Fold each of these.
Amino acid sequence: MLEQLIPNLKNQIGKLKIGNFTWQNSRAFWTVLALFIIIVANRLISPNFFSIQMVEGRLIGSLINILDGAAPIMLLSIGMTLVIATKGVDLSVGAVMAICAAVAVMLINQYESGATDFYYTPPFVILIALGTGALCGLWNGILVAFFDIQPIVATMILMTSGRGIAQMITNGQSPTFTDDTLAFIGRGVIFGVPFPIYLYLAVFLLVYLLVRRTAIGLMIESVGINARASYYAGINASLIKVLVYVLSGVCAALAGLIIAGEVKSADPHKNGEWAELDAILAVVIGGTSLSGGRFSLGLSALGVLIVQSLLTGLYISKLHPTANLVVKAIVVLVVLLFQSDEFRRRIRQLVRRRA
Amino acid sequence: MSINEQTQFPLLETQGLTKSFIATLALSEVDFTLHAGEVHALLGENGAGKSTLIKLITGVHPKDAGTILLEGKVIEPRSPGHAQELGISAVYQEINLIPTLSVAENIFLGRQPMRFGLVNMRSANRRARELLETFHIDIDVTRDLSSYSIAIQQIVAIVRGVDLSAKVLILDEPTSSLDRHEVETLFSVIRSLKKRGIGILLITHFIDQVYEISDRITVLRNGLKVGEHQTQELPKVKLVSEMLGKELTDELMVQNGQQTNGESEHETFLQVRGFARRGMMEPFDVVVKKGEIVGLAGLLGSGRTETAHLIFGIEKSETGEAYVKGQKVNLTSPQKAIRHGFGLCPEDRKAEGIIDDLTVRENIILALQAKMGWFNHLSRKRQEQLAQEMIDALRIVTPDTEKPVKELSGGNQQKVILARWLISNPEFLILDEPTRGIDVGAHVEIINIIKRLAKEGKAMMVISSELAEVVDYSDRVVVLRDRKKITELEGDQISENTIMQTIAER
Amino acid sequence: MRHIKWVVLVLVALSLVAPLAVAQEDTGEGLTIGFSQIGSESAWRTSFTNAVKAEAEARGINLLFSDAQQEQENQIAAMQAWIAQGDVDAIVLAPVVVSGWDVVLQEAKDAGIPVVIVDRNVDSDPSLFVTRVSSDFVHEGRLAAAWLVQATSGQCNIVELYGTVGSAAAEDRNQGFNEVIALFPGMKIIRSETGNFVRTEGKQVMESFLSAEDPANICAVWAHNDDMAIGAIEAIKEAGLVPAKDILIVSVDAIPDIFDSLDAGETNATVELSPFMGAPAFDAVVSYLNGEELPKWVPVAGKLYTDRAAYDADHQ
């Protein structure tokens, strides 16, 4: 039954073609299906899951909450997708979030205590924080591209030392701030929709145009699939690698600012804690292989939404909190299994043998 | 099993074997038999279905329909490992071993002799040495596999396959990387395996070798079986025409060298003086002129590929200088070489040439796009147009521009890499073994392309193991031995005999 | 009223559990004590350090202070230096991690220097140290529950923001809270989810609660720490409700930010995670040196605050 249903469904959906994106691409199909099932399950648990209300100029509802809550990791997933597509990985993004948030909050505190230099004004503070993220990415990129250090090792250096750096910046404290401009990044609302969602969409669009409307996307994939052959074909693989790590650093800076704005403080320990693993998981669920190559920014975002929707579902279910991690692990496992061609082939064989 | 049973049934038999991939029928109702103690050659052009047949027999892909029988019993191989358990071992053209493990570890991978629960490396090393000695190969089995030539790696793969005590041994292009002496070694082993009653399924593009070693021949074309013959009863011409599905033309008959001696005053494109790198290549000079083909001849390991890599900037020369059209240039990276109008089709197509997950279109435009820069983006339409032009011009067999290049046959992949350079309109092309591992038809086409490019005025440097081929198209031949340029042959000097004599001279 | 009777009973019970401050003649004047602190990663850690220093000064104890910057090696090195020089009468250790202390504790014991563990736990054999002084998380849960019982007259549907599952702070606070509300049939935890002690997660969990439940049905939020409570306040405000009025909020820690919320009338109560571990630690040292028997755990309980003034009064 299922055996006939799924390919049928796939063929039906397969006929929908948007630009050069086809549903026939099986990874996309299973990722979208997983998100769909989780959302339907959430709706079954909570009847008003889809309800969205306007309260005091702000849209309120589970779907908005999911997008808002997922925005920082979705931002990370943009950079992480590109890094992973080059056969790399960036373990440092969580620490970079903490560093950039610390830089921003320490500078804004100067501003709040009366410093008038232009570089203490909120727009410059934000620029400096983004620059710090880019610098962190540059460091990673140089280690990977020019010193040929394995990405997992190269970025681990900043991952382990980064929180220490953030603590040094904040003198070991978790400074708070009140500036509304900086807070707006995390908690602002425009037309009822939380600002982080706009921020994600804007960055997504910019990066999408950067990689797909130029040759950069192709170069990234080429380097990720076969770095040697790409080098022979005249591609500057080193520069491509530096670029993706810098982008990843900037995405991390933005994510760090969202968290800092949300809680109005820079907590060097908790800002971005485990974020790198969440981002990597999302990219993998989105179907970009850890061995590099073909990538999809959109599917990585869906990967984040799958995890966030699942978490929301767990929050509204009455399961005991101890079950959360187990349920999360099982769902992730099932999604990844169904993306595996080998697993599907075996299931088919099993079904056939029964029939 | 009784002797009777073994003779009653063929060793391996397929009946009505069928397999299709998305939109293409790769194999259609193929009946094939392999007897114990015979060498059966499986021949066909690229895309004929040879690889598919093997992959079904070894359980890489599930079959759509048909039956596979081993000694008269139906088998359902689920994976190469399972096929191996059943007694079917395969050694593929692209070596599937682990380069960072030692030779012995590769031979015994997954079935190391154990002692007290630990891998007994001493015993493994000893047994590996013994096995290799039956091939008259004496090497240090404790060194990494990657430190040996492709030829040795190939032999190690075969040794591993033979040692899995197979009933059926499948050899996919086993000789494509071996020199004549190594081929002899391999053939003597194949003969001894025959005597032990092992059935050998051989895929090769070397027609002469087919006649030398095989008992029977099965020819496939476009997924169909088109003939099954006793080798000795089949004239070569008939075999080739059966494979190609057309009458032979003169193109296949290699006779004449280049007749361009008249217009010898070509303009010099590249002049290299004293390029060298320790451990790779002794200092050499070379000149390549526009519209001229320079052949590089020499045995495996003589420094042919190294010469190409130094010129293209993959390896940096430690000494000497290079001039392009009289201007001194810096050739320290492929990017710089490409900027001066160079292009290189590498020897190892899979590792250095194709980007396997990318489409035919993307592979074709890659070098041009890299040359144009990140932001000067070729539109999708332009890309498709360029790719299609190349597909037509080089007769690349692919359903469309969007097929992943890894799904193409070897010869078509080679054409894709050629196309990659041709659209970037280079003035100088280096081709390293452009005809290796591809079938007769594509072979002829590629040689014709090479000649045409030279006529169009491109400077060409071609490396090939097939002397007849080098003699056919070269204006000049650079002969290499032991990582050293020995001499350069020109005009009437160019013949297989003189080249071999030059190489053999001491 | 029936409820009041219960409340009185509870408060009596709590006062029995709370450690009794025994006035001691011997304050330890003239002793030299080494104090190895984890670092200064949070405001709470800093006030803990300051409280220990102030207590030592008041008692006339010569305190040797060492900041380990979050590294166990630094703590071990400092302790070994003190032991080698033989210039301390006792060591107070705030361990950064649970394991890996056996060797240095044995060295201290062999040198006859008593060690008192404060704050976090160690997994070494209890014979290697004098006693452990740490917060009584169960008591904190009880205090929060008792306040909520009083504030709601024993009638309340509670949503719980759980700390990190498996951490002692979360499990014990949950246990203490449940012990007390079990006495009142009108008190129910209707939803419980983990926010991992993190502000943003506390907010996300609260958002889910508000969408899954009719907000009118939620009487109070019980958060295992202040950070999650602050996140919940955000969620409640964004849902158009008034925190601390429509939905009561009680949490644990007494971090500076929560007092800003108390000032703004956005939360109701916080139980202090007491930084005052200096006094019981020094008392333990003195008792040990006087040859007295000591229990292996000396709990320290914080107080519950509903405004800044009362807190400031206790932290002069």
Amino acid sequence: MNWVGTNRWWGLAFVLPSAVFLLGFTLLPIAAAAVLSFFDWTLPADPSFVGMANFSELADDRQFWAAVGHTLQFIAGYVPLVLATGLGLAMMLNRQGRYTGFTRVLFFMPVVSAWVAVALIWKWMLNPRFGVINWLLGLVGVEGPAWLFERGWAMAAIIGASVWKDTGFVMLLFLAGLQAIPSDYREAAFVDGATRWQAFWRITVPLLTPTIFLVVIISLINSFQIFEQVWILTGGGPVASTTVIVERIVTTAFDYGRVGYAAAMSWVLFLLIFAVTLVQHRAQDRWVFHE
Amino acid sequence: MSEPTTAVEPRTRDDGVVRGSEVASRGTPPARTARTHRRRPRPASVLGRVLLVVAGLAMALPFAWSLLTSLQDSRSLLVLPPSFSPSSLTTSAYRRLVDLMPFTRIVANTVIVTIISTVAQVVTSAMAGYGLARFNFRGRHAVFLAYLATMMVPFQVTIIPLFIAMRWLGWVNSLQALIAPMVASAFGVFLFRQYFMQMPAELEEAAALDGANPWQTFWRIALPYAQPAIAAHGILAFMAAWNAFLWPLFIARDESAMTLPVALASLHGRWTTDWSLVMAGSVITVVPVIVVYAVAQRWIVGGTLLSGIRR
């Protein structure tokens, strides 16, 4: 129903409590971050207007662009893996008809848990000497690497822990996508003599492209914002080989107190996310199937 | 943090929400839920079943390992394989944890912040969603667009100005500094607006005929109707508040306002080697959320959580 004819202030009254907090603690800060990025402000000193200086400094900031590079490394490993494991699990659960409350809770335990706690659990398991993972590898005769203390392996470990944490969530999205596909399509393909492999690539995957698109967008956006797992697992090390964008923002604001420069970084983060999402959105007509 | 990090792109957002509420709305047969599917299981392949069990173990074992570690004394951690015999288990790590930190204070902080921000977020979002769905007022469209626009901006953008504002307000190391940014949820408003737009009008019309004013109608008719949406958004808000790390790391480093994740991170920094202590802290941080999720997921009909596309 529409409360047409009722006092029009009622609508505003309903929106007001949320809108006040949105304005004060989200909208104004967003605007303030834009303003701040034009100031050189190192706490506790006073701010001074410097125009575009923060952005030109950022353009030459090697550490920042190294962090962007590490984020891209993370994306290159994480996005395909989480997509594959999430889809694989969803297909198995869908086929087995085993998506019950128990499996839902089981696969969602990592999703709902705090990253700090989960990252600490992984850090303990990845301990080179006393960790369970290297002990298990030793049982099959493999000498495990030093994981978080070794260049190359550190990022791999961060990717692995992140895939483990998020796979249940991606699985849920794919499960909904799979259940929206009418079973007649596959059955018709089998009648025509298609193999399972063909049915998967010619029927299931094309019909799943809207879900794949959704998963890619979500996981890309989240990847640009990774912080907690890196902060706990490696702290950006070893030798700054796993620094990421948000970690740079936190370090710049905290350790150096340079809040103007950190605000400029946060706007660059936003623009990066925005640009990637826009490109994805534009490109979707080429590969996303819409009925 | 509490802010939606996703749902940037209109089509995907519609997709998730419509499907979610479709499933959740009453009277509609839950055509696409897992439940329907379960009734007609196809012949299961052995390989698929084995892989599923392996995947399930992979999900559960890290938690089991942390629990086991938390029940050992620090010295026996250096021996692998660990002893599973009950006699070697001890709760000393938990006792040390309680002695070492103002533990009750930290747990109380976390509980207070989580409860207040969850309730506030659900109530204000449901109200605003109702206002946007059911009333015509000047600026309604602009308000809705403002909500949509904030969903696109990552929380990290607001964090520096928020930090400065909190310093100016004198709110550093206070619980209200942790709660205030969590109250408004653009995502929640969007979810409830979609939900209320699909609610049949007859219920409210009957109440209005009986002389109920809009607030009474909202409170007695709309809110009970929105129970699946409340459960879905409530879980997300609860998780976001309980697990929050980045913003508390900025604003609440003092023990007077510290919450569990920050305390846990500091524990690890100071006593890197005492893994049974750190694992005891992890268990305490993780168990409440898993229990709440396990209980609440029953109320989330079908795919409603799908509309909760955020982490």
